[in-house]
Amino acid sequence: MARAQANPGISWRQVTPAPLILLVGTEEYLASRAFELLRHQASGREDIQQTRLNAQKYEPGELLLATSSSLFSSANLVEVHDLASMNEYFLKDALNYLKDPAPENVLILHYSGGTRGKKLIDAIKGAGAVIVNCQPLKKDAEKIEFVTAEFKAAKRRITNDAVKALVAAVGSSLAELGSSCSQLIQDTTGAIDQDVVDRYYGGRVEATAFKVADAAIAGNAQLALRTLRHALGTGTDPIPIVATLAMKVRQLAKVLGVNEPAAQLASELGMAPWQVQQAQQQARGWKRSDVAACVETIAQTDHMVKGGGKSPGYALEHAILFIAGKAPRR
Questions:
Q1: Prediction pTM value
Q2: In this predicted model, what pLDDT tens digit does every residue of 109-132 receive, in sequence order?
Q3: N or C: which end of the chain has fewer CB within 10 A?
Q4: 3-state secondary structure 260-308
């Protein structure tokens, strides 16, 4: 007799607040989207308190405090991260909570896998938790489905050829693929066809605008220039590269000197939590005056690549060298 397959769980897009929710899988981007969605759904309730816990750095009693009612709230949404690295304090308190979970609360836990805390995982599943599939999307068909769903959710039309072209260009990283979908949705109007995707991401199977921008911001001028030249040499339009540089530097400016948690900043800044976290890491050591200078340089570069200069490639190289030169030495 064939062994029954384990329940892979529902899609993160289908999840709604429930007393127990277990996100299972190593794809941090999908987990972050699930957390973000549940956080947004719960934000409409004035009586709910939101708390984030780290199971690895957990202190005794934190879960009890986070799941208890107070003068300010009658219900709680509690996010638990790093469940695969939980310490003994969290294991003990979580097992105790599962004996009598409060039905008005929403407890969301992300488990990336492994053998640590298997007793707790079994207990969570046995308590009737909603299982959410956060496993990596390895097949192109899965990524195509993801992109199609992104545009459907935004009520935007994209052709099948355009979807396939986008996956081929930036499909190696799901986070980058999601960001690319957001950029196309925000920066374009009407139906998106393959010509639009090629204009933004053509020739980016190996060399991407995001890699160029990230390398420049990190101060790695050689990698940024090498990646840029390869991208331009394979047909990438310089305009989306400048747009990506501008977006990444603007994100630096938004988070620079702000120490609030990424989850809290995300809604204020109009960014996804993972984008805030990445920008916060990249912003360490940057000076506000240097970021402002980079913004001005990118604006000049944008003018030059759109017809204001004779050599868009040279203008881009100059901008990248300028940004990399301003980056803090780590």
A1: 0.64
A2: 999 988 888 899 999 999 999 999
A3: N
A4: CCHHHHHHHHCCCHHHHHHHHHHHCCCCHHHHHHHHHHHHHHHHHHHHH
